[in-house]
Each structure stands twice: as structure tokens, then as C-alpha cells.
Write a structure and sequence with these properties.
Conserved hypothetical protein from pyrococcus furiosus pfu- 392566-001, ParB domain; alpha/beta
């Protein structure tokens, strides 16, 4: 059965907590049944990708069993609005399923006095406690939180119940390029794979290493060992695999020569182009690529729609 959330309390437990609050025992939220149309998604939710098949399974589960784990939201009090409005903190898929099923009401924990910032913090904390989501979604959300609220990393870590080191490690992978991120997600590599790749500082080298990891199906330990060997002598690996290096003077003539990776085998070059196109397509960008042989050359045309 598809999971309906990460909270462990049942609805009966929450009804008891509501009674405790009414008796003056100080819970920061109340339990209520709310109309789905009054609940608005969190625009800054860390989770960006919701797989259609997973949502379908959850919808079917709720159709037969109801919502077993309450959603969490905060009361919206702005723009002079006097009606019932809530911003979701946790339960995006359950809300979508409830709306698809046209449920008259959904069980919810409602935080009465949570500010926008606190709602975002609670969303991050809840998502880190549940099944891990897209590693880059979490890193992007943490980066947005720090920049938007103006916190120092140490302050943000404390508010999110994380150590400063843990926060630093989670955000480090944002140094990877968008193409590298897409390839990592597409092929199901882990956060440890991504962190290991960052040891390869030059993007051209890094993409070569990433392709090798995928083609050979390296686990994390094998990846780390391969990168150790690669960094000891990159030229040996590049030449062995059909690449060569060209040294060019730096623009101002003062810095060390710039190393550029040169493809000696055109098949490797075309394979890299194919993988880049597939990665961009996987990220949702409409890209069309056509490849054909014309006389003594190969014509490769990439078309991207204007946004």
C-alpha cells in the first residue's frame, strides 16, 4: 500500500491532543477537518517532482481506505481575507489525491500562529525525517531558505535541527552543473556519488568521469577508488578512452596553460552529446535532436523551444 505520510500519530491520537489543548495543555496546533479547496500548496515546498504512478497508487489507496495520516498546514492571515484559508506544510500528494477524489473534507493539523518562515522550516524538517527525496531538491530548498531569511549557515542549521557540517555537506552538491545533476538523477546515482564527483574540479574531466561511472555501473566505493586513480594521472585515462589533451596559453599569458579535452574518437563525442540531450529532456525542457550522415561528415542538429 502506498504510504500516506511520515507522521506516526493516528487520527484518534490527534483528537486526544485537541482535547488536551482545549483543556489548556498547550499544543501549538489544533486538529480539524478542512475542505480541500481551502488548502493552498506551499510555493516553496522542497519536493518538486511528484511521480504520476505514485500519485495514482496513493489516490487508489485513499479511495479505499481514506486518509490515514493527517496533512499539516498553517492558517493564512493576509490581504484582509476573512474566510478559511490554509497553506500546506506537509501532504502535497495527499491533497492532490483528495482533490482528484472530490473529498468533502480532509483531516489536518492546523498551526494557528505559524509565520511563513516557520512553515517553511517545518516543511524542511518533516521532509528530512521522511523517505529521502531528490537530493538536489533538498539542497536547493536549503539554499533558498538561507538566502531568503538571511541566516548564517550555523543559524540555519540550528533552526532546522541539523549540525553545521551536515548542512554544509547537503548543500555542497549544488556546485555540480545542471547537466551533471540531470544525469545523476536520470541514472539513480546517490548523494555520495555526487559528492565524490566534486573532487574532480574541472567540469570537462568531471563529465568524462561521470560517464565512466554510469557505463561501468560503479558503486560508491568503486567510484571513489576510480576517482583516486583518475586524479593521479588524468591524461592516462583520457588517452586510453580515446581522448587527448591540448594545452592552450591563458588569455593574459600569466596563468598556467589551460587544459582542454579533445575527442580523438568521434563516437565518444557523439555519445556525450546524446547523453547531454537526454539529460535536458529528462529535466522537462523540450529539446529535439537529429543526427544524420552527410557525405563525409555527421550533421547533428539540436533544437530548443524559446520560453
Amino acid at each position: 500500500m502506498e504510504s500516506q505520510g511520515g507522521a506516526e500519530m493516528t487520527i484518534q491520537d490527534l483528537k486526544k491532543k485537541r482535547k488536551d489543548k482545549e483543556d489548556g495543555n498547550g499544543a501549538p496546533y489544533r486538529f480539524a477537518f478542512v475542505r480541500p479547496s481551502c488548502v493552498y500548496p506551499n510555493p516553496h515546498s522542497p519536493r518538486k517532482l511528484i511521480a504520476g504512478d505514485a500519485l495514482d497508487r496513493l489516490t487508489d489507496s485513499i479511495r479505499h481506505n481514506g486518509i490515514l495520516t493527517p496533512l499539516i498546514a498553517r492558517v493564512l492571515r493576509d490581504d484582509g481575507w476573512t474566510g478559511e484559508r490554509y497553506e500546506l506544510i506537509d501532504g502535497e500528494r495527499r491533497l492532490q489525491a483528495a482533490k482528484a477524489l472530490d473529498l468533502p473534507s480532509i483531516p489536518m493539523l492546523v498551526f494557528e500562529d505559524a509565520e511563513r518562515r516557520r512553515g517553511f522550516e517545518l516543511s524542511l524538517i518533516l521532509n528530512t525525517q521522511k523517505e529521502p527525496f531528490n537530493l538536489f531538491e533538498l539542497a536547493d530548498a536549503l539554499d533558498l531558505y538561507i538566502k531568503r531569511e538571511g541566516y548564517l549557515p550555523e543559524e540555519a542549521a540550528s533552526r532546522l535541527s541539523m549540525s553545521p557540517k551536515e548542512l554544509e555537506v547537503k548543500m555542497k552538491i549544488l556546485e555540480l552543473t545542471s547537466v551533471e545533476r540531470s544525469v545523476i538523477l536520470e541514472h539513480g546515482l546517490t548523494e555520495r556519488h555526487a559528492r565524490a564527483l566534486l573532487r574532480v574540479r574541472q567540469p570537462g574531466y568531471r563529465l568524462f568521469v561521470l560517464n565512466t561511472i554510469i557505463e561501468r555501473g560503479f558503486n560508491v566505493t568503486e567510484t571513489e577508488n576510480y576517482i583516486d586513480s583518475f586524479l593521479s594521472c588524468p591524461e592516462k585515462y583520457l588517452i586510453t578512452e580515446g581522448f587527448s589533451l591540448r594545452r592552450e596559453p591563458s588569455p593574459d599569458g600569466r596563468d598556467p596553460p589551460i587544459r582542454r579535452v579533445i575527442f580523438r574518437d568521434v563516437r565518444l563525442f557523439l555519445n556525450t552529446l546524446d547523453r547531454a540531450v537526454e539529460s535536458v529532456q529528462a529535466s522537462g525542457v523540450p529539446v529535439d535532436a537529429q543526427k544524420r550522415e552527410v557525405d563525409d561528415m555527421i550533421e547533428y542538429i539540436i533544437r530548443v523551444e524559446k520560453t
